[in-house]
Design brief:
The chain has helices spanning 22-38, 56-61, 69-81, 165-173, 187-205, 254-263, 272-275; strands spanning 8-15, 43-45, 84-86, 90-93, 100-107, 113-118, 124-127, 130-133, 138-139, 146-149, 152-156, 178-180, 208-211, 215-217, 223-225, 228-231, 237-241, 246-253. It is of the alpha/beta class. The protein has a single domain, classed as Nitrilase/N-carbamoyl-D-aminoacid amidohydrolase, CATH 3.60.110.10. Helix 1 packs parallel to helix 3. The N and C termini lie far apart (50 Å). The mean pLDDT is 95.
């Protein structure tokens, strides 16, 4: 066995145009996950709401438990293909009558759920004349999740979380070396902010960013930006799918991460005793 193999991890981010047909979304995801595995990926990241994207009423009607069909499908891929699968996010049932969690699950190669993250920051904004009120149909999570994946320690986040650097810095304090960002980033904000924010989070935290985005128009009239990408701890985009449904794949080199952190040791120069006063 090549000793360097343990120091790298091939990862794939999946780009989809999910809609109201859960079965069709499952079939598309199945094809892309299998393509990623055939290309040698050992970590596959699906986008936000990959199983169903059709507005708040449909999301509520289609909400699932974590032992529901979408997560079970992802667990099957992990077992069959020997992958770690970040099952993007799904609408997870809550005890509230009219709200779901926007929940991401990380599944180990044995098919067990290794991490669960419920989106902390909900997208309540007005963009280009359209109002988004995620909190009308979703409840915010309350916990941070950082999980070991092979040679990486992966911090979990979802879409709008990308605008909150304190979340990623806290995950660095928990040992994160990479972040997953399943998203349905709007086309309007994506043009100006998506790559800038991903590269900034990578540079300031000296960590890999794996960002799987939705792309194109959805049944609720929203439009997602695409440009799914993988970014190095130096801030370099090493894989990107600009448009269309498909994959972006890259090898994550742990030696690069260690060089960046050793030669530009910004993380060790922090002054938390000042910030917390």
């Amino acid at each position: 066995m090549d000793p360097s193999a343990a120091r790298t991890l091939r990862a794939a981010v999946v780009q989809m145009t999910s809609g109201a047909d859960v079965n069709a979304n499952h079939l598309t995801a199945d094809r892309l996950v299998r393509e990623a595995a055939a290309a040698g990926a050992r970590l596959v990241v699906l986008p936000e709401t990959w199983n169903l994207m059709a507005g708040p009423d449909a999301a509520l009607a289609g909400a699932e438990d974590l032992d529901g069909p979408s997560v079970q499908l992802a667990r099957g891929w992990a077992r069959e293909l020997g992958l770690t699968v970040l099952a993007g996010s799904i609408g997870e049932r809550t005890l509230e009558a009219r709200r779901v969690y926007n929940t991401s699950t990380l599944i180990a190669p044995d098919g067990q759920i290794a991490g669960v993250y419920r989106k902390l920051h909900l997208f309540d904004v007005e963009v280009a004349g359209r109002t988004y009120r995620e909190s009308d149909g979703a409840a915010p999570g309350t916990q941070i999740a950082v999980v070991d994946v092979g040679p990486l320690r992966v911090g979990m986040s979802v879409c709008y979380d990308l605008r909150f650097p304190e979340l990623y810095r806290h995950m660095i304090d928990l040992g994160a070396t990479a972040f997953v960002v399943p998203s349905a980033f709007t086309a309007q904000t994506g043009r100006d902010h998506w790559e800038v924010l991903l590269r900034a989070r990578a540079i300031e935290n000296q960590a890999f960013m794996l960002a799987a985005d939705q792309v194109g128009r959805h049944p609720d009239g929203s439009e997602s930006y695409g440009h799914s990408m993988i970014v190095t701890p130096w801030g370099e985009v090493i894989a990107e799918l600009v448009s269309g449904v498909g994959l972006a794949i890259a090898d994550l080199d742990l030696a690069l991460l260690e060089r960046v952190r050793a030669t530009l040791p910004a993380l060790t120069h922090r002054r938390p005793e000042i910030y917390e006063s």
